[in-house]
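Entry 14. Structure prediction run on the chain below.
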Amino acid sequence: MQNLKTIVGRSAEINELRALIKVVGPSDATALILGDSGTGKELVARALHDCSERSGEPFIPVNCGAIPRELLESELFGHRKGAFTGAISDRKGRFELASGGTLFLDEIGDMSMDLQVKLLRVLQERIIDPVGTTQGLAIDVRVVAATHKNIELLIHKGEFREDLYYRLNVMPIEIKALHERKEDIVPLIEHFALLHAKRRQKPITFASISLELFMRYNWPGNVRELSNLVNRYSALYPGQNVDFRNVPESMLPPGIRLLANTDPGELPIATHVASGQGAFNFEVHGDKGLNGDVPSQPVDAIAEGDPSAAFDETVRVISMAQSWDSFPEQGLPLKQHMVDIERSLIQQALDKAEGNVSKTARLLNVQRTTLIEKINKYGLSTT
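Output returned:
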């Protein structure tokens, strides 16, 4: 189907997703799409619409998190003239605009509890009440909702109605994060390179070393981040083969810089070019996270100072845990001590492995990607 070609990828997860869309699309059942930000939830919603008998009618998206809660009711259900200050005329809501077609409610987890009650009634009775009137209006709309949040956790916290969840979750569709389906990275690059190519220019390609870094990167921004990067390099190097060794450091995501510098022995990286000329000749600063964020914990004196001091602190806390007689009268901050222990042990292992991240991961018996996240979180040195 032509409408399924927008779902790009060759992984088992994407093949299963396309097959599910073929089955669920023709149905009128309400669907709930789950997935991290940037995975393409609206794309899947559009594909469901295009596979249905409603494909000739409107597809109306609404981002429930982007519209102020006091305005969202009017946006969804419409209002009548004089309903509130500024309502100078009747206005159709998104439900009415989507008549005969599909209404896509993105970020449904951000909807207020009072509005959730009204949405539940609409889904049950298929009648909307525009603001400013008590006269109901029948609607014929298929609803597809989406969220990146854990709805079951929101229900547990009392922030989302359980009955509404069951009403929306008739057809659950989950989109895996990009780092869980790395087989899709190359076809997605090819797709976006064609999409972002300038007129009368060939699409860009990537050197093998660049693709290797792409494959090892964790993609916190998912497919959206990949699209934006390909768009960036299409503008900078139209029609060229992009080699990250020749790309200014400011044009690389911090996470890719970290990968390029933490374990250069695993990559066929050429000799570092002169300062300011390429990407692999810079330092990864400790105050930046894997995604360019400030780490959640500061780098304290133990992590930055004498390694023996860090070791002594670790021994002291472990000994304290084994001997309650030595527990201080004033107590201690347990969470911070556990953080200190983990930080100091990782730094000791890094020192023993001479900064080699893969060897450090083996010493600590943890996944390499997990270790990189912790190195970044604590601002530890790999040199």
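The chain has 16 helices and nine strands.
Filed with the rest of this week's runs.
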